[in-house]
Amino acid sequence: MSDEGPDEAALVSLLAAVERAPDDIALRLLLARLLIDSDRISEAVSHCARVLEQSPGDAQAKDLMALALGKPVGADDSSPAQHPTHADTARDSISDPRPSEQEGFWRHAESQLADAIPPMFVDQPAGESVAPAWDVERPSVTLADVGGLEHVKARLNAAFLAPLRNPGLRRLYAKSLRGGLLIYGPPGCGKTFIARAVAGELGAKFIAVGIADILDIHVGTSEVNLHDIFQLARRSAPCVLFLDELDALGPKRSLTRNINLRTTVNQLLTELDGVADDNDGVFVLGATNQPWDIDAALRRPGRLDRTLLVLPPDDQARRAIFVHHLKGRPIAGIDLARCAAATDGFSGADIAYACEGAAELALIDSVNSGNPRLIAQADLDESIREITPSVTPWLLSARTVVEYGTDDGTFKDLRAYLKRRRLL
Ligand SMILES: Nc1ncnc2c1ncn2[C@@H]1O[C@H](COP(=O)(O)OP(=O)(O)O)[C@@H](O)[C@H]1O
Ligand SMILES: [Mg+2]
Fold it and tell me: How many domains does the chain have?
């Protein structure tokens, strides 16, 4: 919220009032106005849109919408993750109204930098942990928030959640439950999302760590980092410890990066086995896009011995992902069945990008025509058409591995899926 904006208390009261009287157009427009003043642009847009749905000709709603859309795009917080945006291209063609101010800024920044140029290379003292403070979350999402993927949920319930919820079973399976679960599949299809939902299901805390982020070329540091993370998880128990990009520890990486990861793998094995420390209440979920690059020692019984394949979302899941990413946006007449049918083979991340693209098309059109309009099915159609599913390259490399690698049964689910898609 900007300093000059209305105070938070007024906004909260107004939000509550609008909720009580959803059809009061004047009240809603007052709220939209205050939201714009507070730089809460996307909320303002959706309130204006709501009014325009009710009363398409409302001049004040149109004006406010134009005002909201005319704000700098950077003022909003809903930018997509990785892909370049349509708006980026549009923004490039709009000249900056205040070049002299910018020049001044850069001149000032330059002179400041010249005064204090830091050394280009620094030494990290050996053995010192460089791990950032890891976030311990308490996720509110559960498996109910994961759209579709019924077989994945059933498998998680049977193999992981049911025994944990039942103390009798837990005692009986005490040994086999020591092990963790390796979630694998193409990028952007929900591995992290599902791991977080598992923590939510268990009412457990959640720590997510990318293995590549804890690796350090200084001898001993990676191991210290790993130990610190496991200790944090033990202190936070019950806790789901999510180790992402586990392939970063694989033998192939050691070769390409010319470093020996053996000691780091050994440290991870020690932590997983929990010989010296009590791992009660710590549930380790590993994830990778490249399960064939995982160090074999990690897959032995009692470690990450069970696998769960998470594939591109099915029809139901795609609908859920569309709903999730369109929620709160000014939309009209969206045909979910059509969207889902047009995105077979897309990842969750691709769908998120399609929604983002559609919103930008509607926005650019509104700005260009000066006539604000809602996001329509045509925008989604166009945005979907422009996207190449990011999963394809993964499927092709998976095919090579499954076709030419030894078949020890590890990738049986993947094999079946590739056959279904006629890739094998
Ligand atoms: N089944 C699903 N239901 C709802 N949203 C999903 C689903 N699968 C993926 N998503 C969405 O896609 C995004 C990317 O998923 P993510 O878990 O980060 O993928 P991964 O870890 O496999 O690379 C998530 O943030 C989520 O919004
Ligand atoms: Mg992930």
Answer: 3
